[in-house]
Design brief:
Structural class: alpha/beta
Order of helices and strands: HEHEHEHEHEHHHHH
Helix content: 40-55%
Number of helices: 10
Length: 182
């Protein structure tokens, strides 16, 4: 069974972005220990290049094969927040889950990232328990993608302040909320 689980996990590819070599190597090791395929880069611009977002004519066309992006918040030239906004602003990449990590526990920064579409905000140093929280985001992506449901719609349905919006506009959210409450 462990062999089957390891085989299933290797299909998930994580792009790790951190300017600190120590933090980058730590997150890379934690992810690989959990059987993820990892590509690590040291800047937001290298992440955009890898994703095909540096030039507008390339704008993420083609399959990048990345299932999740985990990025440091504080980096020179481009912050993790800036990277998040570029990814969420891309037609082709906006549904890829993004996790922000930072050594600074600044509530306004955390809220801003989550409001912009980050799935999680990890405080550094990242630990194995944090990495264990990644899998549900990957599994949700696999479940939602074939049905053409957008992640944001599901998040809006779960969020109490947005429930009314979903109840009025989305029958799938009604069904989801009904099943969630049972």
């Amino acid at each position: 069974m462990a062999q089957v689980q390891a085989t299933m996990d290797t299909q998930f590819h994580v792009l790790a972005v951190d300017d600190s070599i120590i933090d980058r190597k730590l997150i890379e090791r934690l992810l690989k220990t959990s059987s993820y395929q990892v590509t690590a880069v040291d800047s937001g611009s290298k992440a955009l290049e890898y994703l095909g977002l540096l030039s507008e004519e390339n704008e993420g066309r083609g399959e990048v094969g990345v299932n999740l992006i985990i990025t440091d918040y504080s980096m020179p030239e481009m912050t993790g927040y800036d990277l998040l906004r570029k990814i969420k602003g891309s037609t082709y990449l906006k549904d890829i889950p993004v996790i922000i990590m930072s050594s600074e526990n600044v509530p306004s920064r955390i809220n801003r990232c989550l409001e912009e579409g980050a799935e999680e905000f990890f405080l550094k140093p990242v630990q194995q328990s944090d990495v264990n929280r990644i899998k549900p985001h990957l599994m949700r992506e696999k479940v939602l993608s074939p049905n053409s449901l957008k992640r944001k719609s599901m998040v809006e349905c779960i969020s109490p302040e947005k429930t009314r919006k979903c109840n009025n506009n989305n029958n799938l959210c009604d069904i989801f909320l009904h099943n969630l409450c049972e």
